[in-house]
Amino acid sequence: MAESHGGAKSPAAGAHTEAEGGHGGGFPPFESSTYASQLVWLAIFFVALYVIVSKLALPKVGGAIEARQNKIEGDLTEAQTLRDQSDAALKAYEGELASARSRAQAIGNESRDKANAQADAERKTLEEQLAAKLAGAEKTIAATRATAMSNVRGIAADAAGQIVQQLTGVVPDAGSVNAAVDASLKG
Amino acid sequence: MKIDPIHQFNIEPLFTLGHIGNHTIAFTNSSLYMLVAVAIISILMLASGTQLVPGRLQSVAEISYEFVASTIRSTAGSEGMKFFPLIFSLFMFICVSNLVGIIPYTFTISSHLIVTAALALLVFFTVLIYGVAKNGLKFFSIFVPHGVPGYILPLVMFIEILSFFLRPVSHSVRLFANMLAGHIALKVFAGFVAMLGFSLGALGWIGGVLPLALTVALYALEILVAFLQAYVFAILTCIYLNDAIHPGH
Q1: What is the DSSP letter of A53?
Q2: How many domains does chain B have?
Q3: Could B111 and A45 be called an inter-chain contact, meaning their C-beta atoms sit closer than 8 Å?
Q4: Banded pLDDT at B103 (limits 50, 70, 90)
Q5: Is residue B162 domain-resident?
Q6: Contact A29 B2 (CB under 8 A)
Q7: Is residue B1 part of a domain?
Q8: Could you give the count of Cα atoms lying within 13 Å of A57 in the half-sphere of its Cβ?
Q9: Res. B97 pLDDT band, cuts 50 70 90
Q10: B228 is a domain residue
Q11: Residues B95, B63: contact at Cβ < 8 Å?
């Protein structure tokens, strides 16, 4: 915009360049002698620019933008898929957990019932066994007592015979001793 | 000291290539800055990577792409994307050359009416040829607005046709005049600083702070204008192309 003579130069230098670079007093944009050159070069450079832009620049930059768009869309789709997958996995996990819980409860109930039944049966057999043992023991006690009682009679008869012998010096008759012991035991 | 605000628009041949008829074809400073603009756009669009997470250069390239693409979609619909390369080329060419031209000592391509007129006519004929090729005679229904009473229809049609053919004029002059006026204003205010200093000495240099501040403010405005005019050129192109794509509206 500002030319060599337009800045803060010395007046002499300014005048020199002014004289050298004069434009013949005309207004440069309306100097028709320059039109042909400008048009020719404008045509050459603008066509060159158009070719560069349409064949190289726009496909390249547009491709980069599109690639980014696709990448972003692809990533979003992938993220959505992964999210759906994780949602499904969570749902499956929760379902599994619920079914496992109910199954565990069922198994617990079943095993508890089974254990109760088994315990009842065992207790019953045990009680029966105990009752049988008790009956046996009572029988033994009764037998033992009967034996003991008969032994006691023999011992008592012997003792009575001995005592009579010691006191009288006469061996008593076994029958009378026995009768006396029986009478005393009854008595 | 004389400040010439017009000098910056001089076309200076760097080397002469030949002649077409009696026209001299030379590689000029204007041609050089066209080459610079094409080179900057090519580097920006091609040297930037295609990474998933873009770097700075790639971000700029992608923002330009998305910006132009969304402009087309919002003004000409998705069918307008056929003209994406054309509009992108126009927008980037004008925007980059305007922004380069705002750097001191550079040349602004779009400060020459012949360049902006050529671009505007390119758009005009693209619209006209594509519109007729796609819609046939129905394309000319854009000159007949709906719901206009019969007795003023000829007048309205005349105005519509006139405005259609004046489009390339307004399209090109808008860009050209904005760039030209902005650069002249900048040069005048910047030159005023030097003029004050050289003519009034120390007092002048102190007084020059004011035009300097104005130059800085204008410079910021010109950066905005450089971008905005490219955007306006592109969006008008979209609107004109929309006529060719959907002539019923």
Answers
A1: I
A2: 1
A3: no
A4: very high
A5: yes
A6: no
A7: no
A8: 31
A9: very high
A10: yes
A11: no
